[in-house]
C-alpha cells in the first residue's frame, strides 16, 4: 500500500448538508480536495465515506495525517 501524500498543511472548510454523503480523499492525490476524484487508482488507498449529521461548516483534513478522518484534528500543525 502506498502512503498518502500531503495535499495541503491546512484543512479545507466545506459547508456540508445534513444527511448528505461525502467521499473524502485519503490518498492526497485528488485535484478536488478535500474530496476524492478517483486519482487513488493504483495506490491501494480508498476514499472515506462520511455522512453529515447536521448542516454547517466542517474542516476536512488535507494533510491526510489526521487521526479523526475525515476531519482535521490539528495534526497538520506538527508537520
Ligand atoms: Fe484520493 Fe480518491 S483521489 S482517495
Ligand atoms: Fe490534516 Fe489538519 S489538515 S490534521
Bound molecules: FE2/S2 (inorganic) cluster
Number of helical runs?
0
| Rg over CA atoms | 12 Å
Helix- and strand-based class? mainly beta
Mean model confidence by pLDDT: 97
> What does the overall shape look like?
globular
Numbering strands along the chain, what is their spatial order in the largest sheet?
1-4
Please trace the helix and strand order, writing H or E for each element.
EEEE
Largest sheet: 2 strands, antiparallel
Task: Count every beta strand, where a strand is a DSSP E run of 2 or more residues.
Answer: 4
Low-confidence stretches: none
Beta-strand content estimate: 15-25%
How would you characterize this protein structure?
This protein is mainly beta and 79 residues long. It has one domain (1-79). Helices cover 0% and strands 23% of the residues. The chain has no helices and four strands. Strands 1-4 form a two-stranded antiparallel sheet. It has a two-stranded antiparallel ribbon with strand order 2-3. The radius of gyration is 12 Å and the shape is globular. The structure holds FE2/S2 (inorganic) cluster (2 copies).
List keywords for this structure.
single chain, 79 residues, mainly beta, two-stranded antiparallel ribbon, 4 strands, globular, binds FE2/S2 (inorganic) cluster
Please describe the topology of this protein.
Elements: E1 12-16, E2 21-24, E3 48-51, E4 56-60
Antiparallel strand pairs: 1-4, 2-3
Bound molecules: FE2/S2 (inorganic) cluster (FES) (2 copies).
Brief overview:
Helix content is 0%, strand content 23%. By secondary structure, the protein is mostly beta strands. The protein has one domain (1-79).
Amino acid at each position: 500500500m502506498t502512503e498518502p501524500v500531503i495535499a495541503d498543511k491546512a484543512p479545507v472548510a466545506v459547508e456540508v448538508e445534513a444527511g448528505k454523503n461525502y467521499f473524502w480523499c485519503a490518498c492526497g492525490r485528488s485535484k478536488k480536495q478535500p474530496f476524492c476524484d478517483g486519482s487513488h487508482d493504483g495506490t491501494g488507498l480508498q476514499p472515506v465515506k462520511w455522512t453529515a449529521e447536521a448542516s454547517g461548516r466542517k474542516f476536512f483534513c488535507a494533510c491526510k495525517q489526521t487521526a479523526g478522518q475525515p476531519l482535521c484534528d490539528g495534526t497538520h500543525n506538527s508537520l
